[in-house]
Amino acid sequence: MRFRAIINNKRIPYFTFLLPLFFVVHGLSEYLFYIPVIKTFELFVFYTGVNILLIAFFYIGFRDTTKAAFAAFISFAFFCFFGAIHDGLKNLFPDFFLTRYSFFIPLLLVIYILLLYAATKRNGFIKLIKYFNLTLIVLILFDLSIIGYKIITNKNDDSRFPVCGECSKPDVYLIVLDGYAGNRQLISDFSYHNKHFFDGLGELGFYLIPESKSNYQGTVFSISSLLNFEYLNLKDFSVTDKNLNYCYRKISQNKAVKFFQQHGYEFYNNSIFDIGNAASRSQKTFLISGVDLISSQTLWSRVKKDLYYNFLMNYLGNSSQYKDFVYNDLENNLLLYNKTKADANIRSNKPKFIYTHLMMPHFPYYFNETGQLNQLADLRYDQLKRKDLYLGYLKYCNRQVLSLVHHIKKATQGKA
User: Taking Cα atoms as reference points, which of 263, 198, 250 lies closest to residue 222?
Assistant: First the structure.
């Protein structure tokens, strides 16, 4: 009876606090298996705090708790569902002027102001309180049921691989060089024979595949396929939330790490992905993971991604903010590269599986072939198709990788 009385109460705007709970729970229901629950709870606490501040702010103007709560609800709804609304319109009206930021944001602003004005007319929305409360409770319960269903029916791949008790178990290193052109492309598009690098790897005992290529153009698609020894069960390979969801889960719960762990290996994650309980050490650029998967649809995240970075590149090319953004991948590469060297020096009773993912020679092309840092102007997006810059960075990358492999060989007495 008390629960029914709470729902039927037409004057208490519970929906103001139910909205952030719904937003977080809904996000968790979509990305359940690769978002730490504690981080999700922290996000909910943060959004609730923001909501309280919004209520306090609007109370100063309205001097009415219910009106302030309704205004806060409107503000938070626009903030949270900005990306979902925009994507929905783009799907319905592709390449239509309505979806352009120059039109879409002013339109939302007008609607937002009109709704705030409606909040001043208490009688106009007081009857909606009950329905807002009830609707959000139903939606939250629905998402919780989805979470429960996913947990119960989760087919966590517990594949047991044949274990050879007497086989040697050397340390294993998987080093991915993102954006590295295949041998055929280097010859046809760059007139470059990568003989020195191939010879160096051959001398170190590597088996070389001269005509190797990736099956997919996107990193998340390639890595989710690679780490699971299989092709992807997708109809298309566009960068959509559904496809990214699919790939992130396969990467997080990949078969390769499970294979090594079942054989007694320790896993060291020096990649750009969160894998199982091993979070990535790198700073995220455009690749999002963890709780950012939920917040990526918010107004701030979308504006930052779609407008702020373009504004930085086009108008603030000499600012410290632009330099921080441009050199982010460089710092990540140095971090993961040095971490791999340090992990190779660790003495352990267990064999190690170390996955290192370097965004090199991926754009931006930070170094020339002599190892000298390129000018900031050479790192702008309009330099993306500069073959000389790419080739110089690839040659630099070759030397760095051979140096890393020599270090690993020495640290492991040639047994890796």
Answer: 250
| pLDDT tens per residue across span 320-349 | 878 888 899 999 999 999 999 999 999 999
| Burial (0-12, 13-18, 19+ Cβ within 10 Å), 220 | buried
Predicted pLDDT at 56: 92
Q: Residue 364, preceding bond cis, omega within 30 degrees?
A: yes
Contact between 300 and 79 under an 8 Å Cβ cutoff? The reply is yes
> DSSP readout, 71-103?
HHHHHHHHHHSHHHHHHHHHHHSTT-GGGSHHH
Query: DSSP alpha helices (H): ranges in 154-205?
Result: 183-190, 195-203
Give which of 232, 278, 224 is closest to 251, Cα–Cα: 224
- Predicted confidence band at 173 (pLDDT cuts at 50, 70, 90)? very high
Residue with tokens 């007319």: 121
Confidence at 278, pLDDT banded by 50, 70, 90 = confident
- Which residues are CB-contacts of 294 (< 8 A; sequence separation ≥ 6)? 23, 24, 27, 28, 31, 35, 40, 43
User: What pTM did the predictor assign?
Assistant: 0.78
pLDDT at 24: 94
- What are 129-167's pLDDT values in tens digits? 788 888 999 999 999 999 999 888 876 665 667 777 778
Among residues 362, 333, 393, the alpha carbon closest in space to that of 214 is found at 362
- Report in angstroms the alpha-carbon separations of 15 from 9, 25, 291: 12, 14, 23
Q: Which residues of 309-325 are buried (b: 16+ CB within 10 A; e: fewer)?
A: beebbeeeeeeeebeeb
For the ranges 280-289, 322-331, 345-354, the lowest mean pLDDT is seen at 280-289
DSSP 287-354: ---TTHHHHTTSHHHHHIIIIIHHHHHHH-TTSHHHHHHHTHHHHHHHHHHHHHHHHHH---SS-EEE
Q: What are phi and psi of 385, to 5 degrees?
A: -95, 10
- Decide: residue 162, CB within 10 A, 0-12 exposed, 13-18 middle, 19+ buried: exposed
How far apart CA 290 and CA 280 sit, in angstroms, is 10
